[in-house]
Amino acid sequence: MAAAVADSAVKTAVKRKRQENGDTGKKRRKSGSGGDGDDDDLKTHIQKLEAEIQESRKHYNNIATLAELAQKHDENPKAAIAASEALCRIFIRLLAAGNLVKRKDASERDATVTSWLRDRLADYRKALLAMFRSKKVAFDALMLAMALLKAEAQHLGDRQDAVFPRYFFSDIVATLIESPVDQLREHFSENFIDQYDDIRFYTFEALKTYLTDREHSVDEDTRSVVFEMLISMEDVPESNDDLEDFYIEPPQKKKHPLRSLSQHKKQAQEAWLALFHLGLSKEQRKKVLEAMATSIAPWFTQPELLMDFLTDCYNSGGSISLLALSGVFYLIQERNLDYPEFFTKLYSLLDADILHSKHRSRFFRLLDTFLGSSHLPAVMVASFIKRLARLALNAPPSAIVVIVPWFYNLFKKHPLTTFMMHRVPRTKEEKELIESEGVEDPFLPDEKDPMETHAIDSCLWEIVQLQSHYHPNVATIAKIISEQFTKQAYSLEDFLDHSYGSLLEAEMSKEVKKPPVVEYMIPKKIFTKAAPDSEEKDSLLVSLWDFGSS
Amino acid sequence: MAGSQLKRLKASLRDQGIIGPQQSKKQKRKTAEELKAKPDKRLQRGEALASIREQFNPFQFKTNARGPKFDVTTNKPAGDKAAMGIKGRPGVAKAVGEQRRRETLLLEMQRRNKVGGLIDRRFGEDDPNLSLEDKMIERYTREQQRNHKKSSMFDLEEGDEPMGGLTHMGRPLFDDDDDDEAHPKDDFDEEDLPSGDESDSSRAERRRLKRQRLEEAAEDQQEEDGQPERKKTKKEIYEEIIAKSKAHKFERQAAKDEDNELREELDTAMPELQALLFQRQPPPAKDGKDTREPVIIAGKDKAALDKDYDIRVKQLAADTRAQPAERTKTEEEQAEEEATRLKELEEKRLRRMRGETIEEDEEDEEEEERRGKGKKKKADAEEQPANPFDDEEEDEFGLGKGVPGKGTKYRPTATELGFDDEDDFLIDDDLVASGSELELDSDDMEDEESDDEDAGSESGSDDDEFVKGILTEAVTKDAVFHLADKAKGSDENGIPYTFPCPQTHEEMLKAFERLDVTKLPVAVQRIRALYHPKLDSKNKERLGKFSQVLVQHVAYMGDRFEPHWFPTLENLCRHIHSLAKSFPIEVAKAYRAHIQEIEEQRPLGLTVGDLLVLTAIGTTFPTSDHFHQVVTPAMLAIGRFLGQKIPQRLSDYATGTYLAILALQYQQFSKRYVPELMNFCLNTLCSLAHEKPLEKLGFFPVHEPAAGVQIKGASKTAVRQLNCADCQQQPLSPAAESSLKVAIISTTVAILKAAAETWHKLSAFHETFLPALLVLQHLNSPPNSAHLPPSLAAKLADAASTLARHLQLARLARRPLELHHHKPLAIRTYVPKFEDSFDPNKHYDPDRERAELAKLKAEHKRERKGALRELRKDAAFMQRENLRVKKQRDEAYEKKYKRLVAEIQGEEGRAANEYAREKEARKRKAARGR
Q: What superkingdom heads the lineage (chain B) (predicted)?
C-alpha cells in the first residue's frame, strides 16, 4: 500500500511536470524539428532502461546510467527529470521490495548488491538535491525528493514503524535554504509545512541544526531566508488533538514527540532561539517585534527566554521600543511576567517623537489598555496626561484628536485628576498670591518617575490652548474637556488612524454647495509694499518676504 | 318650607300670582283687560306654571344621590344646575329621544321593504296648521316673487331703461332726439341721455327751461314760506326725490365723460409719452413714423393694437424706473451707512470666528429688507441649498471615517449679505434697461453700456483704483465699445479691445499668448466688461469659468514667476477676489481643486505657484472663520507641509518659511494656534545652527539636518530678505548659500517674534515659547554666533529678550484653570411635583402621546357606550312600535271578528226567532186546529 502511495506521489509530480511542459512539448511536436526526435529517443531509452531494471537484477547497472543522466540536469533538464522520475519509481519499488534493507541472513552477494544499491540511492539523493538549485527542475525535484523521503521512511528501516529519515530531510531543508529559487521555499511551506505537522516539526529541527552547525558561516541572506520561513509558520496548534495531519505514517506510540504539542513548541522555540542567537538586523528586529505577539511568542514553551530579547528591544528606545511594547505586554498578560518599573519605562516612551510616529495608533491602543485600570494611582495617571498634553503642543492634528478624548476617559476613570482642569484657590491668601505672582507650572517635565512629576498639581493649559487650534474639528474636540462631562466615555477607535491626508480628504470630499463667505474688503496690497506715506500697514507676508518691490 | 305637598303647591302658586284671594267683579274685569293688552302676560303665566310643575315633580330631575355638593368642594359657580346637584332630566331626555325616533326611525320602519313613492314638495302640504286658503295665498305670492325679476319698479338708481326695456320697434320709448315731437317728453328726462353728439343748442335750451322751473319752484317755496308750514303731499315728496336722484345721475355721467375724454387724449399721446419715459431721443427716421402713427393705428387691425398695448403695459410695470427711486443720500448719511455696514460685517466675522451659528432666517430677513423686492428671486435661489454639513451631523465631531467639520454651519456670503454692490468692477444693474430690447438693436446695446459706465463713474464713490481704471477707460473708449464686436482694434499698448472669454486654461494661454504679462490686468478688466453678466444670459457662466481659469493662471504664472510680475499677480488676485464676490462657488471650487491637486501630487513639494495660490486664498476668504470650505483645507495643506516635510535642501527651508509666514498671517486675526509652525521654525533654527544643541531644548521633534545645511562662517554675509527664487531648487554658490541661510534664520526669528506677539494671550504660551527662547539662546551662544553676521546676532538677542519679556508676562498672567463652573445638571424629571388648579378629573400625563391616546380611548369608550345605548333604545322603540302595530292589527281583527260574529249571530238570532215564531205559530195553529 505504501508503495502505491509513493507511486501516486510520483505520478502527481509527473503530471505536474507534464502540465507545465505540455504546451511547449506540443508546439515542438508540431514543428517537427530534429531535436524532437532526440527527446523521444531519450524518453524511450529511459523507459527501456526502467523496464529492464524491473525485469531482472541483471540490469541494475542501468540505475547508474540513469543516475548519471539525472545528474546532468544543467545540460538536459528534461532528460534529467525523466531519468529521476524513473529512478524514483525504481527506488520506491526496490524499497518496497526490501532490496535496500541489509539483512543479516543475506548472502554476501546480496549484501554487495544492497550496499551498491544504497550507494546509488545516495547518488540519486544528491542529484535530486542538486536539482533544487535550478529553477526549471526544482519543483519536480522537490516533489520527487519528498516522495522518496516517504518511501524511505516506510521501508528503509527494518522495524515495523516508519522512521523519519532525518538526515535526508535536513539535507533537503538545508538545500532549500541555500537554493536561489524563492518560490520553491514558498511552495514547500505552503504544501508541506502548513499541511503536515510532522514536516513542520522536523523543519524546525532541521533549521535549528542548520543554524547551530553553521553558526559562524551564516550570512545575512540565509538569515533572512530562515527568518522568512520561521515567520511563515504561524498557525500554532492549540492542543495535542490538533496534531493529526502527518505526511509519513505517525508512530503508534502515544508518547512519541511527534504527538506532543510541547515537543513541537520546543522545536520551534529552539529554532527561533538559534536564529536570535545569530543576531538580527534592525529591520528584522522590527519585523520580529511586529509578529511577536501573534506568531512567535505562542510557539514558546518558555517565553521567559524571550524576555531578555524583548526587554533589550524595549530599552533600546525609539520605534523598536514601541514595537517591543506589545511583546512585553503579551508576556505580562499571558505569562505573568513581572516587568519592574513598567510604567516608568512606559512614561519614558512619551518623548517628542511619539506623536509623530507612524506607530502612534498602535501605541495608543496599548497605552489605553495599560492605563485602563481604575486602580492605578491618580498621581501617575496625571503624569501621563500632563506629559501628553505637553507633547500635544507640538503634535499634528491627528494626534491631538486622539489624545483629548483619551484624557476625557481617564478623567472619568480617575476623578482625582480632574483637578487638572478645575482648581479653585482655597484660601484668600492663596488667591492673592496668584493674583500678584501668577502661577508657575509645578510639573517637572524632566522627571523620569511618573509618581514624582507633580503633574496632579498642575493644570492643562496646553489643552485649553489647543481649543484655539487652527483646525476647527481639533478645536471642537479640545473643547470637550471644558464642557460638562455628561458622556460616559469616548470610543478611542473613532479617533485613531487619522492623518493629514485623511483629514484633508474629508474636507475635500464635501462638495461646495453653498457659496462660501468671501472677505468683504478687497485688500489694496497683497504682494507689493504699501506706499510709504499711506496709513496702510504692510501685511506680515510683505514685511517679511521680498517680492521684488522695494 | 314646611307643610304638606299640597300646601307648598298652593303657596308657590300664590307666589307666582296665579291664584290669589277672590277678586271682585271690577278687579276681574280689569285683569281681563290687562290680559288683553299684554298677551305676553299669559305666556308668563304658562311659564310660571311649567316651572312650578317641574319643581314639584321629583322624577323630573336626576340628582346627586347625596344632595348638592358643598361650595368648598366644587369650583363650579353656585346656583348652577350642576352645583345644585341636578345631573339631568331623564323625562325630558326620554321624550326628546322618543320624538326623534318617531321622526326618523319610525319613518324608516314604515318605509321598509317599500320601493319608490312620492315626496310632496308642495308648499305647506305637510303643514297641518295651514288652511287650504292660506296655502293657496302663500303659493301665489311665491310664484309672483319668482316671476318678478326686478326688485322694484320705481328703483331709479337701477338701469337706464325706464320701463320694461325696448318695446317699440326695438327703440326706447322716449328717444328724445329723433322724435322730439312724436313723443311726449318727460320733463325730468331732459338731462338724462348724455350722448356725446348731443347738440349744444338743445342742451342750452333745456338748461334754460330747467332754470325757469327752478325759479318757479323757488317762488312756490317762498309763497309757502309765508304761510304756516304746509304738509307736503306724497306726490310732491316723490317728485322731489326723483329730481334729486336725476341730478345725481347727471353729475356722475358728466364725470364719466370727462374721464373718457382724458383717457382718449392720453391714448393718442401715448407714444410720445412713452418716448419721454424712456428718455430716449427717437431716431430721426422714427420721428416721421411717430407723426403718422394715428394713421397707422387706424390702419392696423385691432388685435395687433391690443397686443401692442398689452406689451407696453407689461414693460411699464416691469420697468424699474417706473418705481420711485430712493432719495439721494447726503455724504454724512452715506458715511454713516458705510460705517454701520462695516461694523455689522465685522460682527458677523467675529461670530463666524467663534464658530457660532448665525440664524439663517434672521439673516434672510435682513437681506430681504436690504435688497428690496427686486432680488427676491435670488434670495430664493440661495435658500435652496441646504446646509452642506447637515448630513454629517450625526457624527459627533465629524471625524468619522473622514474627519469633517462639526458644528460648522454654513454662513452666508458677502453676496448674500447684499454686497455685490461693493464689487466695484460690476456695472450697476439698475442702469441697464432690461426691457428695452423692443426697439434696441445691438448698437443701442452698446450705447447703453457706455451710458451705464458713465453713470457708474459718476456714482462710483469708491477709491479703488481698479474702478477708476475701468471707468476712465470706459469713458474714453466709448467708441471702442461701439466697435467692439465688429473691429478688433487695439489700443496704443497693443492690447486688443476684445477677447474671447477663456473657458479653459489652454484657451487663456492662447488668448494671452502675445500679451505682455504686465498688461494682463487690463485684458482681464476688458474681458470682465465685455462679458458682463447683464449683457448676455450666458455671460454669467462664462465669467464663472473665467474666474476659475484665472485661479489656474495665477498658479501657472507663479510657477514661472519673474520678480517684476508681482504687481500683476497682485492685480490678478484682486480680480479673482472681486469675481469671487459674484461667483463664490466657482472660485472656491477652483481653489479647492488646486489644493486637491497639491495633496494628490505633491503634498510635501509645494511650488511657488502653490504658495501664491495659498496666499491668494488667505486674502480672498476670511481666514478667521472657525470653519471655511476653502481656508480650512488650505490651512491643513500648509500644516501638512510644515509638520511632515523633513527639509533636505535650503529651498525646502525657504518654502517652509514662506508657509510659516502664511500660516501666521492666516491666524493674525483669530489668533489660533498652529503647532506645526513652532515645530518647523524651531527645527529650522536648530538645523541651521552651526552646532547641535547638547541637550533637548523642548518637546518638538528634531530632524537630523542634511549634510551641509549648518551655517558656517557667515559672519560677513549681509542679512537680506527671502524671496520666491529661494524656494526654487537651484545650485548655489557657497556665498549665495550662506546668504540664503542667514536670510532663512533672520526670517524665522522674525516669524517667531511675530508668533509670540500673535499668541501671547494663549494659555500655554509659556510652555510653547520656552523652547523657542532656548533655541534662540542656543543660536546666540558663542560657538554658534561666531558664524553669524553681527546684525543677525543683534536681532537674535532682541528677539530673545522680547520672548523673555512675553514669557515673564505670561507667567504672571497665568491662573489655575477653572473650567468647570457649570451649573450642576438637573436630574431629569418627568412628572411635575405640583400643579396649580389641580383637577382630579383631568389626566396630567407628561407624555403627550400617551395622554392623547388615553383621551382618544376614553372618547372611544364613551362613544361606544352611547352607541350601544342608542341601539338598545332603538331596538326597544322598534319592538314597542311593532307591538303597537300588532296590537292595532289584532284589535282591528278582533273588531272585525266580533263584528262578523255579531252579524252572524244577529242573522242566526233572527232566523232562530223566525223559527221560534213559526213554531209558535204552528203550535198555535195546531192548538187552534185542535
A: Eukaryota
* Mean model confidence pLDDT for chain B: 74
Q: Is the pLDDT of residue A549 over 90?
A: no
**CB proximity B386 to A under 8 Å:** yes
Preferred mutation among B351, B399, B586 to probe A, highest tally of A CBs within 10 A = B399
Chain B residues 362-381 within an 8 A CB cutoff of chain A: none
Q: Detail the DSSP E strand segments found in B701-799.
A: 722-723
Query: In this predicted structure, what is the pLDDT of residue A379?
Result: 93
Tell me, yes or no, whether A245 and A369 share the same domain.
no
| Tens digits of residue pLDDT in B541-575 | 888 888 888 888 888 888 888 888 888 888 888 88
B644–A500 C-beta distance less than 8 A: yes
Q: Grid coordinates standing for B345?
A: 460685517
Asked if pLDDT for residue B169 goes beyond 60, the answer is no
Q: Domain limits at A540?
A: 519-550
Using an 8 Å Cβ cutoff, are A387 and A347 in contact? yes
Angle at CA B553, nearest 5°, toward B547 and B555? 115
Judge if A78 and A54 occupy the same domain: yes
Domain ends where: A143, A158, A173?
A: A158
Q: Cβ–Cβ of A549/B567 closer than 8 Å?
A: yes
Lowest mean pLDDT among A46-50, A324-328, B134-138: A46-50
DSSP β-bridge partners for residue B496: B490
| Structural domain count of chain A | 4
Please check whether residue B345 touches A, CB under 8 A: yes
Q: What is the pLDDT of residues A52-78, one digit of tens each?
A: 666 666 666 667 777 666 666 666 667
Mutate to test the interface with A, among B347, B576, B636 (most CBs of A within 10 A): B636
For B382, nearest residue in chain A (alpha carbons): A514
pLDDT score recorded for residue A533: 67
State the cell numbers at B55.
Answer: 319643581
Strands A545-546 and B722-723, sheet pairing: parallel
Most confident of the ranges A78-87, B100-109, B319-328: B100-109
Report the C-alpha gap between A539 and A212 in whole angstroms.
Answer: 71
Which of A279, A296, A313 terminates a domain? The answer is A279
CA distance to partner chain A, nearest, from residue B570 (Å): 6
Please indicate if any CB of chain A lies within 8 Å of the CB of B526.
Answer: no
A272 in a structural domain? yes
Length of chain B: 930
Q: In this structure, what C-alpha cell is assigned to residue B581?
A: 464676490
In a domain, A298, yes or no: no
Same domain, A482 and A455: yes
Complex-level ipTM beyond the 0.95 threshold:
no
Residues A517, B622: C-beta atoms closer than 8 Å: yes
Residues A6 and A154 in one domain: yes
pLDDT at B394 over 50: no
A483 in a structural domain: yes
Which pTM was predicted? 0.59
Assess contact for B470 and B425: CB atoms under 8 A. Answer: yes
**A103 within domain boundaries:** yes
For residue B366, what pLDDT is reported? 42
* Contact between residue B741 and residue B732 where contact means Cβ atoms under 8 Å apart: no
Condensed to tens digits (0 to 9), the pLDDT of residues B850-868 reads: 889 989 999 999 999 999 9
Would you call B784 an interface residue with chain A, using a CB distance cutoff of 8 Å? Answer: no
The DSSP code sequence of B432-479 is S-TTGGGT--HHHHHHHHHHHHHHHHHH-----HHHHHHHHHHHHTHH
CB atoms B406 and A517 under 8 Å: no
Which residues in chain A have their CB less than 8 angstroms from residue B766's CB? Answer: 441, 461
A488/A427 same-domain check: yes
Return the higher-pLDDT residue of A288 and B222: A288
Per DSSP, the residues of B331-352 read HHHHHHHHHHHHHHHHHHHHHH
Query: Does residue A49 sit in the same domain as residue A170?
Result: no
A401 and A465 fall within a common domain: yes
